[in-house]
Amino acid sequence: MSGPLRPPGISESDFRLALAEFAAIVGRAAVLSGDSAAQSYLDPFDPFPPGDARAHEASAVVLVADIDQLRAVLDVANRYRVPLWSVSTGRNFAYGGAAPRLKGCVVLDMQRMNRVLEINETLGYALVEPGVSYYDLYRELKARGSKLWLDPPAAGWGSVMGNTLERGFGTTPYGDHAAAQCGMEVMLANGELVRTGMGAMTGNRAWQVFKPGFGPSYDGMFMQSNFGIVTKLGVWLMPRPEGYLLCRYMFRHDADLETIVETLRPLKLDDTIQSNAAIESAMRWAAGVSTRKQWYDGTGAMPDALVDKMARALGIGRWNLRFCLYGPERMVKARRDVIHERFARIANAELIEMPFTDAAIEPKGGGDRSQVGIPNMDAFNLLNWRGGTGAHIDFSPVCPPLGQDAAKQARMVQERAAQYGFDYYGGFTVGQRSMHHIFAAIFNRDDAQQTGAARDLLEALINDFGAAGYGQYRTHLEFMDLAASQYDFNDHALMRMSETIKTALDPNGILSPGKQGIWPGKTTGRTP
Ligand code: ADP
Prior knowledge:
Layout lengths: L11 H15 L4 E3 L1 H6 L19 E4 L3 H14 L3 E4 L18 E4 L6 E5 L4 E4 L5 H10 L4 E2 L10 H6 L15 E7 L5 E3 L33 E8 L1 E2 L3 E9 L5 H13 L7 E5 H8 L14 H11 L4 E9 L1 H15 L6 E3 L4 E2 L7 H6 L18 E6 L2 E2 L3 H17 L6 E5 L4 E10 L3 H20 L12 H6 L3 H17 L23
Parallel strand pairs: 2-4, 3-4
Antiparallel strand pairs: 1-2, 5-6, 6-10, 7-11, 8-9, 8-10, 12-14, 12-15, 12-16, 13-14, 13-19, 17-20, 18-20, 19-20
The protein binds adenosine-5'-diphosphate.
């Protein structure tokens, strides 16, 4: 294909006409094309060595400002068969950023649709448009003197919409973002606007309080999917508690992980610990507060004896457990006593005592601020770990909250990461009934060897884990097909169902082809 990049299967003249029609709808300034436009929508953490970079490059970008523009853009896309890759603010870093799965897609950027449509103080929810970031919502809550807390993900700059649709998570009791979502408005590929749940009934006021509605429930169908474009999203917000107690335990030995998880599970299952609990390896903690060079300057993974030394020097454990308790002081202390009594049984477990704090008082550190609903960007500190142009790609398998699974997964990642020269920047987020294991392969993008190794490591890990019966909850664009292929019960019956739905709702295959491994039908000519 000669000339500027364009979507696969579309002639240069048709693409030019489509771009002109987009410009007539959204304004010339809101259609970006050419190399510089594409450049700013590349994945800044792309794990491709220079020769292979731009595998997920956009051909152009369209920024819509409202529903009418969106509908008109879809009409053009259908007529010319232009594939669109929908993003809310495009900050899905470590999983692909704003870049499309299929090279040549046009990015449909919704950051201009950024109104907080409602904050309901009495019922505890917000209704937002795609472009509303966690910072925007936080500022709006503050400006209104609201007594509601949001739940920020690790990096607060992204959108509530994007993170929730990707089933992201945070560390307050509302940390399961998909579970705290209630009611959507969705535009289908044909321009039809649908409201889910109670929103489907004219005049009904329970849209953001009762998820199911009447009949099948569809919200989950539009998460991590390419079946529609979500234009409004309801999210539950946590009533500000009287106060909070930040809890932190340190454990001396790498082998303590199994016991930590076994101790934690019953406390999560019966809700004694209300929030997602984070179990962080020494490396994960160290990468937030120091650089690798301070401890080790070798090329391979940091030797175990040095990890021990580093942990001692930083005053942290080989594993570190964090969570927060919320409510009136007497209830928080009762919870704390029960929890402490259980963890004290682990040899050498150390509790860092923190005071019960009035909810109006903000903690200082980023991780602590996240636990009380304040967005921040401290998660990006890890980019300095290896020096150069820091980047990371995340490996995110899920497992039951059982000690032996945790220990097995940590060992599998540590061994494989070491083979590729990566430190174990890993940890677990323990929810009420499941556990996410998040490992970041941190690399310097200026170093082609490291960059290529990060990509290869991720592929090896996904294969290893698939063979062991562990699936991903989310992946970088590059591995969506691989991760999806592992959900293979009954000869991939689930994927066949997804493809049937895709063909019915989006016959021209214009919405996010390849998202989560779901590709439009063969007739659209769009395949991986
Ligand atoms: P962030 O909130 O981190 O900026 P993105 O905007 O990058 O997140 O969105 C993450 C992913 O979620 C996108 O790649 C896309 O697949 C999906 N997504 C985002 N917004 C929408 C939307 N409004 N409708 C459908 N899918 C969306």
